[in-house]
Task: inverse folding
């Protein structure tokens, strides 16, 4: 599941809306909405993100959060390591090979570390 899909599912459930109804209201197929929620589709388009924001009547920080989650929700990411150090290339390769076996706590720890570096 992608961060965007997880958020959509939570919003939908909080409003008591089933997937079929939301899909009909957004004029997409239930299969597409399900695939988007589960991360079986690519990153949502800007237009789709805006439709979701409008559908849930989100404003300001909530709308910005949805947009950010959509940017972070490509289920099959490609990393261009050209020009990076050997250590950076090794890190990317280790992560690609081991991401499915990392415990949630370790993933959270890595995210916190990367977020700290971004803010520094």
Result:
């Amino acid at each position: 599941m992608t961060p965007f899909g997880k958020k959509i599912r939570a919003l939908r459930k909080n409003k008591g809306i089933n997937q079929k109804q939301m899909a009909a209201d957004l004029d997409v197929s239930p299969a597409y909405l399900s695939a988007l929620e589960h991360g079986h589709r690519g990153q949502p388009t800007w237009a789709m993100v805006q439709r979701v924001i409008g559908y849930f009547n989100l404003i300001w920080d909530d709308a910005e959060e949805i947009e950010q989650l959509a940017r972070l929700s490509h289920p099959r990411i490609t990393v261009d390591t050209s020009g990076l150090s050997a250590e950076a290339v090794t890190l990317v390769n280790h992560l690609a090979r081991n991401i499915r076996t990392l415990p949630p706590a370790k993933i959270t720890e890595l995210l916190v570390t990367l977020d700290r570096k971004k803010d520094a």
Notes: The CA atoms of residues 10 and 16 lie 10 Å apart. The two ends are 29 Å apart (CA to CA). The chain has a mean pLDDT of 90. The chain has two domains: 3-71, 86-119.
